[in-house]
Amino acid sequence: MGLVHKLLSVFFxxxxxxxxPISFCFEVLLCVILxxxxxxxxxxxxxxxxxxxxxxxxxxxxITGTARGNGRELALQFHxxxxxxxxxxxxxxxxxxxxxxxxxxxxxxxxxxxxxxDRRQVMDMHAAVGRLMGPVDVLVNNAxxxxxxxxxxxxVDDVITxxxxxxxxxxxxxxxxxxxxxxxxxxxxxVTISSMTSFQGLEFHFAYSATKFAVNGMMESLTKELKxxxxxxxxxxxxxYFIANCPRNSSNRILRFPEIPVEDACELIIEGILRxxxxxxxxxxxxxxxxxxxxxxxxxxxxxxxVYFTNIKLTPKExxxxxxxxxxxxxxxxxxxxxxxxMKMGSLPD
Length: 350
Prior knowledge:
The protein has helices at residues 3-11, 21-48, 69-80, 92-104, 119-133, 157-185, 206-228, 247-250, 262-274, 287-292, 298-307, 316-325, 334-344, and strands at 60-64, 84-89, 109-113, 138-141, 189-193, 234-240, 243-244, 253-255, 260-261, 279-282, 310-312. By secondary structure, the chain is α/β, with parallel strands linked by helices. β2, α4 and β3 form a beta-alpha-beta unit.
């Protein structure tokens, strides 16, 4: 143990002292000094001189969850940019409708029925895509399940399993199946549709939020692996706000800001993909505020959440569960209690 290490151990716990502490401090300082100009220039370029979108003319784009909603709209918009679309969904009828709409506009599309939670079906689907359309140039992992889950609800085990299998494991199986082909060709783009709930967990949606947090970590790990391999394969993680793609889900949401129309949301998603953005939110002005709020005290975070409320309507059964376990206590600050309650309804007390 060196002299510097011994000296630092007087003031700090052993696990807080890095190896080669003097070198470590110098390297951190050097990184900060050298990268401040780079960060400033990058921000200026991003805002005022955004990168030109790449062309997908003639490229094979595989999109999961294309039977409806975001997946269908992404398929239609990518086709209008000249891409050939491989539509993948376990709902064969809805998927066929998407394919027919693309073909009716003169586009090239093929439908593949597959449950992405079943690895064998994923392998067979990829083989069929290769035979009919050629290697996949862009993968858009869009398929997902959005359903209420309460920790205290004893009857949602199957729902939790479905959400985790589709939103996380399904994405892993599809990426692991298609990635080797991209690595062999040293080209390709892997896109995951995550969610803003990957930054801020949403009550009554714990399983969904958990999978989206996990998906972000998965994509970050994949990006680092690709960098180590010096691969030209690109990754993009998209974290959208609520999208108006399902009337049933829309009717269960009480929001300060309205849902984004599916056409507008998918246009913004594609714009970020074509600029090879590593991770972004839709709308993009939400990314940094969502990072910043994590640094605030918890009660301040709660106040901001009350202002920018995103509330979920519960079923009578779910309300009964909440009521059953809610502990009512006297509060010494009635005004604060009133403030929180009224903020959730979108108004302030007089």
